[in-house]
Design brief:
CATH topology: Immunoglobulin-like
Strand content: over 45%
CATH architecture: Sandwich
Shape: elongated
Mean pLDDT: 85
CATH class: Mainly Beta
Order of helices and strands: EEEHEEEEEE
Helix content: under 10%
Structural class: mainly beta
Largest sheet: 5 strands, antiparallel
Amino acid sequence: MILEAGEPRALFWETNDLIINGTYQQEGDGLDFNGQIILQSRLATFPNISHMWVNIHFLDNEGVIVRTYRLWTAVGDGGLGGIDYFIKWDFDHNFATPAATYAMTFSYDGAMLDSSSSDGGNIGGYGGHTGIDFWRTP
């Protein structure tokens, strides 16, 4: 999405895994960005997060990534996953933007887990939990 300088701007970015809903304001060589990560229903049915991160990428006018920052992170505890209601889904950052910055996009990676498994086996590599991996690259 193309960045617009000046007044605060609403941002809504959606995939089949998650939504980034927020507000940004670009002034000079900085970008104030705050908002929330929202899981889509296909992931929200899993109560635990094994791990999850979201990156923000600044692009030049040819679509080349000129800078990447971590926007948001959640890490599970002891392989059991972070329980959804303990996760802080909001973010508030100020990023330095390179002079060549024209647009921004996002990438993410994560794994969600169910709360238990009946057979106690290693289902899908999650140590007795049923899970789902998800990701998106820029």
